[in-house]
Amino acid sequence: MAELWDGLREAIRLVIEGDATIREVALRTILVSGSATVLSLLVGVPLGYVLARGQFPGRNLALSMVNTGMGMPPVVVGLVVWLMLVRSGPFGGLELIYTRRAMVIAQFIIALPLVAGFTAASIQALPRELPDLLATLGAGRVRTLWLLVREAHLGLLAAVMAGFGAVVSEVGASMAVGGNIKGETRVLTTAIVTETSRGETASAIALGLILLAMAFSVNLALTVVQQRRRT
């Protein structure tokens, strides 16, 4: 219990003093996880819509793959991406391994099934005849998609929270493809692992508290938007 209080005091000290290293790691965490989440939305929302409303061979298989991907261990994703990007891999020539871009790719793959799955479930919860009704009223495909997204916004905001929460808190994939390089690819989760391995318990707890505060702040903002639009 004493270590927890020491960690809390250390976290407060780091925040008050504006520690440059912590600020750098925190900003890198937001940049990497935020980029991965945005990319997963750009791909996952249309994909979820197609899975929810489309009728094509293999649709159930595709939905099953997405649902399976929602529980995919991040370390497995990291291993696969590492095999693809390492020098001897098929994309080794791109020299992406142990870079922030590799971390974004891995986190994008982690978040994508969550966003697509939540989107599909949200769209399927809408009345089946709603797209036909909108088309009858003169809405084009893009307009119809936009209106359906507005109707399903509660589930879609939940998708954002689930996707961001999954990637900002994962450590296995980031370690595998990012390498935890100080000043380059070290994020809050990998920094926690580093401090713990060094026996710096107070610093590790402080970083963990900062990570929790960051995740809570983002989810609080999204929840406020979600509930405000609901009313």
What does this entry show, briefly?
The chain has helices at residues 2-17, 20-53, 59-69, 74-85, 100-124, 130-136, 141-151, 153-168, 172-178, 188-197, 201-230. By secondary structure, the chain is mainly alpha-helical. The chain is globular, with a radius of gyration of 20 Å.
Describe the 3D structure.
This protein is mostly helical. The protein has one domain (2-230): MetI-like (MetI-like fold, Orthogonal Bundle). It is 77% helix and 0% strand. The chain contains eleven helices and no strands. The chain has helices at 2-17, 20-53, 59-69, 74-85, 100-124, 130-136, 141-151, 153-168, 172-178, 188-197, 201-230. Helix 1 (2-17) packs across helix 11 (201-230), helix 2 (20-53) crosses helix 8 and helix 4 crosses helix 5. The radius of gyration is 20 Å and the shape is globular.
